[in-house]
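Following up on my earlier thread - several people asked me to post the actual chain instead of describing it. Fair enough. Here it is, all 259 residues.
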Amino acid sequence: MHERLSFYIKRDSALHRLNPLTKIVLALSIIFIAFASPWYWTSLALLLLVIVPLGFTGRVAKEFFTAALRLIIPAAGFIFFMQAFFQPIEGTVIFKFWFLDITRESLSYAFRVAARITVMISAFTLLLMTTHPSELMSDLTRRGLPPQFAYVVISTLQILPQMQAKAQTIIAAQQSRGLDTQSTFLKRAGSVVPLVSPLVFGSLIEVEERAIAIEARGFTSKKVKTSLHEIPDTKFDQVLRWALGILVVISIALKIWLP
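Reply from S.P.:
Thanks for posting it. Predicted structure:
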């Protein structure tokens, strides 16, 4: 499996060397704590004190910040705007525009929602950047996850990078034939139409080819499968997973007990 068909970035780092299950538990624990915490500042603290340092630990900080500028921040900003203006929360009005108004309470709610979404997307982005899909699939199936379900998970994670790679190939081919993709906005919008059919039909053909390939490799076989590449699961991984589980339980307890 070629790395360009996934978000995985090959680096030699402590985060990359963690067991794939540990990284899944880490990402889910961060997300769960962000949503379960009774304090509004928890998500921001997780982002600045956990996720960003993990990006540097995994040596993918540059790629992570690029993804943040292109995807995470715009998505969080849109959610913040929608929640601030359209969430019907009564309170002290601090800004009013026509029939729309922002209250102190709706602003606080919008910040909390946007921060949680930012943490969720950021945690999964780090997971995808530091975990190879084949290692993730091998480790999950080794632990008893049905191969069909593992395949669905991995295929879902690869849809976007595969579509991006195929789209870039089609754009390059169309440009070599004289298609204008770099002039005015209207012309560029019109040039999208010739790209749709090759992209859709190419994706359908690729799905069929992949189905034939995995069937030829005995994907549906009931026999116990072995792997040439064993995914290490160190004592540190096991301790870290238990520690993360304890933190999640503490977050649930705080959510229940604190007002």
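The chain has two domains: 8-131+232-259, 145-227. That should answer part of your original question.
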